[in-house]
């Protein structure tokens, strides 16, 4: 699911867009804003995606949601519904202090965009722009746009977006809440990598296959056969003077010396990765800043990892690949928009209107 580990702290920037600040937790790499819970509440099913666990002891409550705007005008929702965990088991592996999950599911009546869309000024459309930094906040834009950041000039990063349709996984347990897209191939340094294309489609008899977007995963997870082909192609495309090294961290399957890796305006100069969507001309380009991670002074690792569970999507696009990119979730249009990295524009997801948000 597209889940964020946060409670609301929302500010109104205009009559059409809300800004929800999001911080990346340094220890867990989860995306959060503030914990909290309520008294006198009833119960609902909740999920902790970090342990793949569902429980019927999540509290559901309502409260007054107050949203500040630039002129000082207050906008309120008198009965905003939310849920948080009360079972100690349900908070395992979550960031320190986090007691709930904020959902952005497609059709859930209590998801954040669907509740806020009850106000006629907003639509069931939101954009996520996650910061790669653990010291400066990214943002979720809720509303139809425009979505502004600064460089220092104000620019609308919702322009020049590549859209692809949402795919329904009718076999998934949370069928109406998850975000699947069609991936037709993957290119590394302009070359198609050999893939079993059947893995790229959702298996009609099971819940595996296909491509899902999930902020609960810090890195993109690949089916083993896709991962090994991906890893081999990436190694072959690396400069010949780059030496492979043993991974210092168990989760990474490919690491290399960074001594001969140049740094560019889009991060480390490593092979470019293209995620080809519904047609060859529709692709989402991933540069070095999103494809690798610096794990020590002289070692970089490929930020794509091998799947170790069965009955999962063949590709789960994780948080690291989404950072410093804008993704627009257009629920009425049943499509997702991919923006390119903000690095070439000399800005970042943290450069939204800090005069409002502090």
From TrEMBL:
Keywords: Signal
Signal peptide from the UniProt entry: 1-15
Peptidase A1 domain: residues covered: 1-339
Xref: InterPro entries: Aspartic_peptidase_A1, PEPTIDASE_A1, Peptidase_aspartic_dom_sf, TAXi_C, TAXi_N
Origin: domain of life: Eukaryota
Pfam family, one: TAXi_N
Family as reported in the entry's similarity comment: Belongs to the peptidase A1 family.
Name used for this protein in its record: Peptidase A1 domain-containing protein
Organism per entry: Solanum tuberosum
């Amino acid at each position: 699911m597209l889940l964020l580990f946060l409670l609301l702290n929302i500010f109104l920037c205009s009559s059409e867009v809300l800004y929800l600040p999001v911080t990346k937790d340094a220890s867990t790499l989860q995306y959060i804003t503030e914990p909290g819970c309520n008294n006198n509440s009833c119960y609902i099913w909740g999920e902790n995606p970090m342990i793949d666990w569902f429980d019927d002891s999540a509290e559901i409550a309502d409260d007054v949601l107050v949203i500040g705007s630039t002129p000082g005008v207050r906008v309120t929702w008198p009965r905003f519904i939310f849920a948080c965990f009360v079972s100690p088991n349900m908070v395992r592996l979550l960031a320190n202090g986090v007691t709930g999950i904020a959902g952005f599911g497609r059709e859930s009546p209590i998801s954040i965009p669907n509740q806020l869309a009850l106000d006629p000024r907003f639509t069931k459309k939101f954009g996520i722009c996650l910061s790669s930094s653990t010291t400066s906040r990214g943002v979720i834009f809720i509303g139809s746009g425009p979505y502004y950041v600064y460089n220092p000039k104000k620019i609308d990063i919702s322009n020049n977006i590549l859209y692809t349709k949402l795919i329904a996984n009718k076999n998934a347990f949370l069928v109406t809440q998850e975000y699947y897209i069609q991936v037709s191939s993957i290119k590394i340094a302009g070359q198609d990598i050999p893939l079993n294309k059947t893995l790229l489609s959702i298996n009609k008899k099971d819940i595996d296959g296909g491509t899902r977007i999930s902020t609960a995963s810090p890195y993109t997870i690949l089916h083993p056969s896709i991962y090994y082909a991906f890893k081999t192609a990436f190694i072959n495309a690396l400069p010949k003077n780059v030496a492979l090294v043993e991974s210092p961290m168990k989760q990474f399957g490919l690491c290399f010396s960074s001594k001969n890796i140049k740094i560019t305006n889009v991060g480390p100069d490593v092979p470019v990765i293209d995620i080809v969507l519904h047609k060859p001309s529709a692709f989402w380009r991933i540069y070095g800043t999103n494809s690798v991670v610096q794990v020590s002074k002289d070692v970089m690792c490929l930020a794509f990892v091998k799947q170790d569970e069965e009955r999962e999507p063949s590709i789960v696009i994780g948080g690291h690949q989404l950072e410093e990119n804008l993704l627009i979730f257009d629920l009425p249009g049943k499509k997702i928009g991919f923006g390119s990295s903000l690095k070439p524009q000399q800005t970042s997801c943290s450069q939204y209107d800090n005069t409002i948000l502090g």
